[in-house]
Every structure is written in C-alpha cells, then in structure tokens.
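INPUT
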Amino acid sequence: MEQIFNLTFLAGLLGAMIRMATPIIFGTMGEIIAERSGVLNLGIEGIMLMGAMTGFLTTLHTGSLWLGVLAAALVGILLSLLMAFLSVILGLSQHVSGLGITLLSTGLAMFIYRLSVGSPVSPPTVKPFSPLAIPLLSNLPVVGKAFFNQYSLVYIAFLLIPIIWVLLFKTSWGLVIRTVGENPLAADTVGINVNLVRTLCLAAGGALMGIGGAFLTLAHQNMFLIEVVGGRGWVCIAMVIFGNWNPIKGAGGALLFGFLDGLQLRLQGIWYKIPFHLFLVIPYLITIIALATMSRRTASPAGLLKPYRREEKG
Amino acid sequence: MRLIMTKRPPLSGWIQVLLPIGAILVTLVLSAIPILFAGGELWLSFYSLFKGALGTRYNLLETFTHAAPLTFTGLAVAFAFRAKFWNIGAEGQLLAGAIAAAWVGINAPPLPAFVLIFLICLAGFLAGGAWATIPAFLKNKLKVDDVVSSLLLNYVMWHIMGFLLFGPMQMPGSSWPRSAAIAQAAHFPVLLSRSRFHLGILLAAIAVLVVWFINSKTELGFQSRAVGANARAAAFGGINVNSVIFKTALISGGLAGMAGVGEVAGIHFHLLMDISPGFGYSGIVIAMLGRLHPVGTALSAFFFSTVIVGAQSMSRMTGVPTYIADVIQAMALLVMLIALLFTEYRIRVVRD
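OUTPUT
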C-alpha cells in the first residue's frame, strides 16, 4: 500500500482533481449566472453534450481546437436563447422547458454526429489540447505538475471563478442581475428590462456550458462518445445548490466532485478485481449526500422558477 | 415590442382533446427540417415511418409491444407530476425493477408460472417504488430538490446495474455484462401468435385503468391533486403532504419498475446494460403530451412507439439516422408546451 499512496500518487490525484473539476466549474458558473437572474436552466446536460459534439466535429473538420471551443460556445448560446424564448419570453415552466432543451439537444447531438461521421468501427479522434506548463511554478514539487502543467481551458475555468464572483457581487451589472433574480417587480419599477437581463444571463451561461462540454471531447478525451457528459450537467445543478448560488462555494463543490472522480479512477486501477462501476458511482452518490447535508441551509434566489409577466404583478 | 398575456377562461373539453393532436401534427411538419437536413426524401421518409410501424400485422404488434414500457414510464411520470412531485427518475426506477425481476427470475425455486410471474412483478414494482421513495424522502425531510436527486439517482442505479452485471449477477463463464437467463416459467406468455405481443402489454393496459381509478375514485388521487395544485393550501386543509408525496412516489416508481419487469420477462429474458433505450426519459414527454391523464398517456405512448419503431425502417429506407425519433420526441414536448400556453392565455404583441 505504501508504495501506491506516495507523492507521485498524490500529485497525480491532485492533477486529476483539477482536470475533472474543470467541466463542472464551467457548467456550474454558467448555471449560477442563469439562476441568479431567476432562471433554472435544466437544459445544461444537453447543452454540454451539444457543446462536446459541436466542438469535436468543428475541430475534426477544421483542425483548430480553439475554433472548436468557439463553436461549442456559440451552440451553447443558441440553445440557451431557445430556452430563453420558452421560459422567459413565453414564461413557460422552467422545469419542463429545460428538460425539453436537454432532450432536444441530446437527440440532435447524436443525430448530427451520426450524420456527420456515419458508423465507423472505431470513432474518429482529434489531436487534443496538450498541457501548457507555466514557467517556474510548474517546477514546484507535487503541486507544480498538478496545478501548473494543465490545459489552457483549465486555467480559464479557474480564472472564471473570481471573475464571476466579482461580477455578481462587486459590480453594478451584478446588482442588476441579482435584483432581477430576487425581485423582478422592483427591477422593473426602476426601469430594468427584466426579460432582457434574463435572456442575456441565459446566453452567457450557455456559452460557458458549451465550453465545459467541449473540454470533455477536446482535452479530457479526444473523441465524442454518447455518454461523454454522463450526468455532469446534473452534477452542476447540484453544485449550484450546494454552493448556495455563490461561485466560490460552487467551485469548491466542483473540486470535491473532481477529487472523487480522480480518486475513483485510481481506485479502479488499484482494486481492479472489483467491478469498476462500483467506483464510478461514488461521485454521484457523494453529490446526493452533499445536497442532503446542505439543502436546508441554502436559499435560492426568490424569483427563481417564476416567469415575470408585468400584467400579473406580485 | 413585447408580449402581453392575459389569462383566458378555461376552454371547452373538445379543445383539450384536439390540442395534443394539433401538437403532433405541428411536430410532424417540423420534423421535416431534420429529415431534409439528413438528405431524406420527405414523402418516402414519412411513408416508411408509418408503414414500418403500422403497415403489417407484425410491425403493428411490435409497435404495441414497444408501447408497453413507454406506457408504464409515462404513467409513472404523469402520476408523480400530478402531485408536483418532480420525478425525473423513471429511468433509474425502471432499471431497479428490471434488476429485481431478473434476480427473482434467476434465483427463484421451481414454481408454477403464474406464481413466479406474480412474484417478479411484485419484486419489480417494489424495487422501482422503493428507489423512487429516496427522492421523496430527501425532499420531505431534507428539502433536497427532487428534480436533481431523482436525476442523479438514475446514474447511481445505472452504475449499480453495471456493478451487478460485471460482478455478482454476471452469467457464469461469460465476459459480457449480461445476467443468466430467467427461468422459463418466469417468461411473460406471448398472447398473439407469431409476434412478441406479451403479457406486459395487457398489464400496461390494466395499469392505465388502475391509475385512472386511483386518480378519480380514491382519497389518494384526490389528495395528490390537491397537493399538486397548492401544497400549502392542502396542508392547511388537513392533508399530510409528506405522506401523500411518499405514497405518490411509491406508486410512480412502482409503475416505472413494471416497465423494467416487462422488458426482462417479455423481451430479453436476461438483464442487459442496454435494457432501456431511455424509456424513462421518454416517459416525461409522453406524460406531458398525454396531459397527465392515464388514457392520454397511453395514446401518446402509442404515438411515440410508432415514431420509435417506424424510425428503424425510415432509417433503412432513407439513411436518416434512427436518432430522428429522439429529436421528434423532444420537439413534440416543446410544441405541446407552447400549445398549452395558448389555452391558458390570450397573447397579444404590442409595440411600446
């Protein structure tokens, strides 16, 4: 045992934690922006899958990884605008619209992928992002390789956490977003266009969700598989609640998930006689337990789930 | 420019019935977009879809066979949504039911067929029901959002099934994730010759009647509707909301579990990783299109079964990927959602 759980193991585990947390961070940040403005976007699971698929196919055809990321962001925006049309402009149930977006995106992702690549024996692959070592810092023992020799999308994800925190809590835009989410009537009274703010927040969040999906097919792996997102979108929804709609706490939850995901992968290798599905279940199970311990202590934005119609005040 | 929406008086019963039919027609028109995009010839595509699902005796009976699990999951979702218990976990509950049915079917001592079939149904119902009571418990006691917990539990059950099929339940001597065969006596009898039209379809039809009876003739049906309409008012009126949610979850999950029983005992006779191609998620669309009414749910299950079965032959004839069925399902949900809005609101566009 001692030979296994040494410093190399620890460095590998920390690196995996950061990597596995990255798509969750993108998704969680995107969802927090949307929910802070008052819209639960259950389309996230499907949007991430569409991002994964679109990013992959774009890179496969153009050879450019960053074009793939851009395309994933754009498709995330498009799907979120559809979500905004249904849940904000028409004011339909956020639950059902979001599930509809996820079902539509899931169907479309598989449909378009199959149309584009057919059914080859082995799925096509792209040359994925390679790690970008940060000078000096990446030479530090243990943490250097784990934290500072990562994909550029990883650094972007971690930079996003403080940026979105500052945006939401320290700028006037953030105040507008939070007011729209907490008390849309008050926001409307002072001349804020509630539905426009919500639409923009959904779109911005959708871009991040799409990029989170693209990370899975352009960095974490180098191919598109139907189960590539595998419930990570729902994990993001859980992390928003777990983090009490705060980007920093939400990212903490994402890191916890990343840690467990990295750990279970390593345990699969060590205890290879135990069917690996028993390890795969751990992150989901802990997410549910985390929700169970935190849910009573959290409070969602007061305007969440409620469409705003000026004609129906209050 | 903005939309002004004003509540309108409830529309007459006919419109309520015509609405899903209209939504289906609009969806079929919209589905021309992905079909044309995939290079499918339009009329040939629709022709092969309906011919493949309804055109011959065998195909029609296949469509009925496929409608059985969809009816069960649709009923499961509809029954839960009626109480505003957001059970998105029918997929996991289906798997729980399938696992329990397979386990009993493999390990039961020799018993007369009708006893064994009763036992696997009971096991599947209880397993699905028990799995659904977890989100109900978490919602009642710990205020955990039911959407999130029931969704995450789908993945938990999927991996539990993976563990079992690569571990304790794997067929001895096999390296595939597949269980041993269930006892012959546990097979659902085939009701019509030269087809797979099995007992599960009859059970699904009975379930429609039972759910209709519970909804309209029992105290639980009345209470779950009251909780769905306004939980606070229901509690004020003396209804034990937690208990109603719990019972609703048990029945809802049990119905989803029965979908799994039917797939094991009527179709595959083994437990397999791909025992469900997303029946649980289709159940959400089916319940919404059926307006949460059991008969509507059964009809909409039959429609989606037509689309799923027909998509196979459409794909063979025109090369349009079978995933078109998933796209059509999702479009139907969104179209229906918008159609419902028009029944509740009068919508005007005004320029500011």
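end of record. The longest helix of chain A spans residues 7-36.
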